[in-house]
Write a structure and sequence with these properties.
Elements lengths: L1 H25 L8 H26 L1 H19 L5 H25 L8 H20 L28 H25 L2 H12 L5 H18 L4 H20 L2 H8 L7 H9 L4 H27 L2 H14 L1 H17 L13 H42 L12
Helix pairs in contact: 1-15, 2-15, 3-4, 4-5, 4-6, 5-6, 5-12, 6-12, 7-11, 8-9, 9-11, 10-12, 13-14
Length: about 400
């Protein structure tokens, strides 16, 4: 009997070894070394995700989905139906597009556990800087920030929108112009924290442990040990202790703990979704605190910082400091600023001066960052999809789920 069973066991072991090897190789495949495989797996994963999303919506949220479809259809009819409501509806649709655009950028900024596209630096920050420069150049905030005639100084000034010479008042005036975009971006960053929260919460409710949570706990354990033995120097010990305290506070302090960590520039907040999901923090407690902290507090702090940084007084002071160190660099920057300011007085963008070298260089940086982000999304999605399929094969061969925690020997 032993000799009859051994070949069967051996074949299973060989198959498991083969699948484990393929699983390891899948993690190394990218669009550069296996373009066809990665693209096929990415498309397959996308299709599976779309199907699962629609099944989940129709199974659990069909009423909400129906109301959403009905609202969209009503808006479509109102948009194309002639009448006095046209101006209001067109303005509403425009605001929805603008708000949705910045919200998506916010989501992209916080997805991927810190590997997301840094859209504040790439988009919202430059937008706020341009609004600030236009306000000081035009002497008013009465100009459009979106559309064909955006960032063009008005021919006649409305005294109601004239920029105040008072520093705080002018700061408030410019803040009101960019507040909607900053708010939508901040809400998007809060939404981007939800996927790891749902994954960790679902795993905890199922009596399992998500891979992300295991990685976080392992890191917490290592950093705690490092901090207790003062290994790695002062800075690493401080970071280690902050991680450990944050991990503990997020699960115990509830709303105000989450609000505190979400309200400050905090690169470690990526752990918040996983931690709160693992500790079964209620959804509205987590999302409410995160949205208030990120949209109403943190985004406004960053916005005010950019406005102050790009104000006329700050720019003039910075140029004076640069002239002391590199006079030629000051001249180059002044030329770029002058060229940018000239675009605000053009009759339209078709008559505006050609873009400066600084603007062209920034466009190239944007394109490079976006391409890198898209490629990383394709690679990680394809790799995770392939690994998941191999995990299913391993589970079938072993006859038990690999995600279940191993029981400790008594």
């Amino acid at each position: 009997k032993i000799f009859r069973i051994t070949p069967k066991m051996s074949s299973i072991d060989k198959e498991l070894e083969k699948i484990n090897r393929l699983r390891r190789e899948a993690k190394e495949k990218t669009i550069w070394n296996s373009p066809i495989t990665v693209l096929v797996q990415f498309l397959e994963a996308t299709f599976v995700w779309i199907v699962k999303t629609f099944v989940w919506i129709f199974k659990f949220h069909y009423l909400s989905f129906g109301i959403l479809i009905l609202s969209a259809f009503s808006l479509f009819v109102a948009y194309h139906l002639p009448g006095n409501h046209q101006q209001f509806v067109h303005g509403l649709v425009t605001d929805m597009w603008i708000g949705g655009y910045w919200m998506v950028l916010g989501i992209l900024s916080s997805v991927g556990l810190g590997t997301g596209l840094h859209t504040f630096v790439l988009y919202l920050g430059p937008f706020i800087a341009k609004v600030t420069m236009a306000a000081y150049t035009c002497g008013t905030t009465d100009f459009q920030t979106h559309g064909e005639d955006s960032f063009i100084c008005p021919t006649t000034l409305n005294p109601q929108y004239n920029l105040s010479p008072d520093i705080l008042h002018s700061l408030w005036q410019i803040l009101l112009v960019v507040q909607f975009e900053a708010l939508m971006w901040g809400i998007g960053t809060a939404i981007g924290e939800l996927p790891p929260y749902f994954v960790a919460r679902a795993a905890r409710l199922a009596g399992e442990r998500s891979a992300e949570m295991e990685e976080v706990e392992q890191e917490m354990k290592e950093t705690a040990e490092s901090a207790s033995h003062n290994q790695g120097g002062k800075i690493s010990s401080i970071i280690a202790s902050i991680k450990v305290k944050m991990f503990s506070l997020l699960g115990n302090l509830g709303f105000f703990g989450i609000l505190l960590f979400a309200s400050i520039p905090n690169p470690l907040f990526d752990l918040a979704g996983i931690t709160c999901g693992h500790f079964l923090v209620p959804f509205w407690t987590f999302f409410g605190a995160t949205a208030i902290g990120k949209a109403f507090i943190k985004a406004h702090i960053q916005t005010i910082f950019v406005i102050v940084l790009c104000s006329d007084r700050t720019v003039k002071f910075a140029l004076e400091m640069i002239s002391l160190v590199a006079p030629s660099l000051k001249v180059t920057i002044e030329e770029a600023i002058t060229k940018q300011k000239a675009t605000f007085f053009a009759a339209s963008h078709s008559h505006a001066p050609t873009k400066s070298w600084l603007g062209t260089a920034w466009d190239m940086v944007l394109i490079t960052m976006i391409l890198y982000f898209l490629i990383s999304i394709v690679n990680s999605t394809a790799q995770n999809h392939m690994v998941h399929k191999y995990d299913i094969q391993i589970e079938r061969l072993k006859g038990e789920p690999t995600s279940k925690p191993q029981k400790k020997k008594q």
